[in-house]
Amino acid sequence: MSQTSDAFGKADPIDIDSAVSVRGVSKNYGEVEALRDLSLEFPRGQLTSLLGPSGCGKTTLLKIIAGLIPATAGEIEIDGRKVTGPGPDRAFVFQDFALLPWANVLRNVSFGLELRGVGKSEREAVAEKYIGNVGLSGFEKAYPHELSGGMRQRVGLARALSVDAQVLLLDEPFSAVDEQNRRKFQEDLLALVRNENKTFIFVTHSIEEAVYISDQIAILLPRPSRVSEIIRPTSFRGTKADNIRRSPEYLDIVDQIWASLRNYVE
Amino acid sequence: MNQRSLFLKLLSAVIVFGAWQIAGLIPVSYAFPTFTESMHALYTITMDGRLFTAYAETLRPLVLGVAISAVSGIGLGLWIGLSSRFDWLFSPIFIVMQAAPLAALIPILVMAYGIGLTSKVFVVCIMAMPVIVLNTSTAVRNTPASIKEMGRSFLASDRDIILKIIIPAASPVIFSGLRLGVSAGFIGAILAELKITPTGVGDIITYSRSIADYPTMYAAIFSIIVLAVLFLNGLERLENTLFEGNNRGYVSD
Ligand SMILES: Nc1ncnc2c1ncn2[C@@H]1O[C@H](COP(=O)(O)OP(=O)(O)O)[C@@H](O)[C@H]1O
Ligand SMILES: [Mg+2]
């Protein structure tokens, strides 16, 4: 059951325009009940984090939204259309990057367009643009094994951006990336959310990361998972990236989330 | 890097041929000629054309058998790897085939197909096919689930997933199966000529042994090995042109 708690009495009204709606979704893996009757709205053009301890079903929910695995019950709607499988309106960024090891950066980034039947010169032009956007210009001919973890994930991000989907699904994209790169990435992601008019669904288990980058944070509790709290930080969203971590609201929300999650951590 | 590997190849050739020469000089057996004697014999049979007529004969079942094994072996392997029902049905056959004592099967083959080309092709296939099928099916089954899932999320059709993800991902192991299969096919071709009817290179080996012309016998064996090595190198070239990205160090030299 979802319940909206506004963090500091000034959250947005509920009747926001949502790009993705999750309604009463349950998922069982045989005996294991991963999700139970989970409902959640994802506002258009914003970044929503799914935050929760490992094993609570974040990846499962994201893959159900992606149409990669079916829900046991409930439904997902994207712009009012029911999800029955993967679609051109969603693009996935994988935790383990999922790059083709035999293909260079250019082919990896343009792979989504290749599968859509876009011609070679056209898809490579689009790929070039996003390779530049994620800061990998000059690495077009490099193979994944020649790149660092952070660079590989930039390739994964560029691939997802180049298909121009309305909804981006990111499954702990920075968990295999070192701390310095992660911070740079988070700043870049903030800029991306502001500049690209896309809806981001971002899975993380890091409280600081979720508070830093999210317009809305959905806290999931351990199995069977449901949304225990929704937090919408407000005051520091407009401020410069450098100042966010010093804002009192940022610090308060981090503390508040930790207070509600600590009961579930041994 | 490349020069170094060329140097190492030459070095190992020198060591092997040197040891051969010394063993022939001792001699370890009166039936074991020196390297230089064997090379001289090789020169002789090359010059009088015997080697070429022999290979014209031997290459027929070899090329036919290897081609059949490669095409149907990879095809079957893909099928077995993609469908668990097929796996259940066919895998045991190839595991048994790989373990079967070929020499014991030859009389049965001869009874069924006579002493002609068919039986020899069968022997080559029995030797070459199992490892090709089993390597292909294992490689297909071990394609990382995460890149298949990535393909699906970016709207790949089943055909795309097979052609653009599974086959390239499996290709290094498929090619290593092909290399092993081709080597086994060479053994099969010679075995067929020794056990069914002495023709081609098998005839040179049998005949020169019967008249105690050991240098010629070893020259024939040596030529087979050289041909096999050349063939395997060609296969590796093919792999590198077909799957550029595979050449990342783990392809054997
Ligand atoms: N394919 C599967 N088969 C069985 N159980 C699974 C499968 N995938 C996930 N689970 C279980 O479902 C739960 C949620 O998994 P997951 O969604 O990966 O969690 P998270 O991403 O939050 O760490 C875990 O307990 C996990 O063991
Ligand atoms: Mg996960």
Could you characterize the architecture of this molecule?
The complex is a heterodimer of chains A (266) and B (253). In chain A, the strands form two sheets. In chain A, strands 6-7-8-3-9-10 form a six-stranded mixed β-sheet, with helices on both faces. Chain A has a four-stranded antiparallel β-sheet with strand order 2-1-4-5, with helices on one face. Chain A is built from eight helices and ten strands. In chain A, 42% of the residues are buried. Chain A folds into two domains: 2-7 and 16-89 and 167-264, Rossmann fold (3-Layer(aba) Sandwich), CATH 3.40.50; 102-164, no CATH class. Chain A is of the alpha/beta class. Chain B has ten helices and no strands. Helices cover 83% and strands 0% of the residues of chain B. Chain B is mainly α and 253 residues long. Chain B is globular, with a radius of gyration of 21 Å. Chain B has two domains: 1-32; 35-242, Orthogonal Bundle (MetI-like fold). The chains are: A alpha/beta (266), B mainly alpha (253). The A-B interface holds A 66-68, 86-88, 90-92, 94, 96, 98-104, 111-112, 114-116, 143, 145, 159, 163 and B 146-147, 149-156, 160, 164-165, 168-169, 171, 243-246, 248. The complex binds adenosine-5'-diphosphate and magnesium ion. Residues 29, 32, 34, 52, 54-60, 223 of chain A line the site of adenosine-5'-diphosphate (ADP).
